[in-house]
Amino acid sequence: MATPMHRLIARRQAEANKQHVRCQKCLEFGHWTYECTGKRKYLHRPSRTAELKKALKEKENRLLLLQQRSFSPPHVYQHRRNCRKKDEEKKV
């Protein structure tokens, strides 16, 4: 059986926990949504389509950067061929 003292302690703990609670209606801390007396705030968020397009564009940009980094100019390829030929000649 809960005594008045237990109820008082439980109420104080609930009040202390409220300080870390954010209202889903007005987006402020310190009270629950059902206790809110404020107006609902408009929070602009990009649409899901916009988020997906942005992620796709970032992925394409990363792939392009990787391709540019891995691409070597033609003179590098020629240098590699020359080195291989020299190595083969040394072996023979």
Automatic annotation (TrEMBL):
<feature type="region of interest" description="Disordered">
    <location>
        <begin position="71"/>
        <end position="92"/>
    </location>
</feature>
<protein>
    <submittedName>
        <fullName>Zinc finger CCHC-type containing 10</fullName>
    </submittedName>
</protein>
<dbReference type="GO" id="GO:0008270">
    <property type="term" value="F:zinc ion binding"/>
</dbReference>
<dbReference type="Pfam" id="PF13917">
    <property type="entry name" value="zf-CCHC_3"/>
</dbReference>
<dbReference type="GO" id="GO:0003676">
    <property type="term" value="F:nucleic acid binding"/>
</dbReference>
<dbReference type="InterPro" id="IPR036875">
    <property type="entry name" value="Znf_CCHC_sf"/>
</dbReference>
<dbReference type="InterPro" id="IPR039715">
    <property type="entry name" value="ZCCHC10"/>
</dbReference>
